[in-house]
Specification:
Strand order of the largest sheet: 8-6-5-4-7-9-10-11-12-13
Radius of gyration: 29 Å
Strand content: 25-35%
Oligomer: single chain
Distance between the termini: 104 Å
Largest sheet: 10 strands, mixed
Structural class: alpha/beta
Length: about 260
Amino acid sequence: MRNGRNIAGTILGAAAVAVIFVCLCVSAGISKAKRAKTLCSGTEVEIADSAENRFVSEADILEYMEKDYGKTEGIPIGDIDLKKMEDILDSQSAVLKSEAYCTKDGILHVKITQRIPVMRFQKNGRRFYGDANGYVFPIKEGKASHVIVIDGNIPIEMDNAGKGRAVTGEEKEWMERMTEMVLYMEKHKVWSRNIVQIHVLGNGDMVLIPRDGTEKFLFGKPTDIEEKFALMESYYAGVVPAKGKDRYRSVDVRYRGQVICK
């Protein structure tokens, strides 16, 4: 008797599962059919960190979409190639990542995460940013971020758009070291606040220019970063109080354990 009840229960359970599966299939079919009929009625663009960085605007994103993807309004949302749209937007220099999706009300939603620059390069009349991953992208006219400026004999040659990563061995190594240096300065806020410019000399040595004071720091190549900043700290902590502010024009920290003032 008990076995009969178990068998009956199993049959009923299986039937219930089958009914649920059929309902889900029907519901999915209806949803797919409804999606196919629902037309795109508009686009909403959301840009992360837009209060801090304004490298792309809603107008820019809509322009990229219209130019490289085409019309979306009035098109069935099921026919919109969201992956293609994301690929188009991700190819834009200031865009780190995009996400596109449609809701059942027919609205196409586009979420944009911008690249965050940590340094600005100026070379041969061209200006471009570098982010924390060593990715270089151009500065759009009228849109700037307050980051450290690096100019002079910058040993990287980017394409005409100034977009991408340094690929040759020497360029890549230099870019990695510079990124490491700038991120070190960002981590230790006193340096990101006080050093406003890095000038690269013809031999690759660097000169660090502070916001205040007459001295310039001869830093050398972007190596032994922590040790050199420790020497700069000892200059401010020991030499300046003893000798007075603005006494020296140059402070050389290129040599291990030495601070040479002139």
